[in-house]
Amino acid sequence: MKAQTFREMTAEELNLKLNELKQELFNLRFSHATGQLTNPMQMVNCKRDIARIKTILREREIKKA
Predict the structure, then answer these.
(1) What is the CATH number of the domain that holds 21?
(2) Which domain range does residue 30 map to?
(3) Number of domains, the chain
(4) Cα-based angle 43, 14, 8 (whole degrees, multiple of 5)
(5) 42 Cβ partners below 8 Å, 6+ apart?
(6) How do residues 2-22 score in pLDDT, each as one tens digit?
(7) Calpha distance 22→15 (Å, rounded)
(8) pTM listed for this prediction
(9) Do 53 and 21 contact (CB within 8 A), yes or no?
(10) Cβ atoms of 1 and 45 closer than 8 Å
């Protein structure tokens, strides 16, 4: 996803999406370990989305202070 779509979400939505992505990453790692993962770039994209969300949440936290 693009960072702009994450910026349009509220903090609660971002936290929900973050939990979903962490669960997805867990499942992708499990699939990779068992040799069932067809596209390893899915893991990379999932990690990047997690990083984007964490960055946006941190930016908002700093802006409040």
Answers:
(1) 1.10.287.310
(2) 3-64
(3) 1
(4) 110
(5) 28
(6) 899 999 999 999 999 999 999
(7) 11
(8) 0.93
(9) yes
(10) no
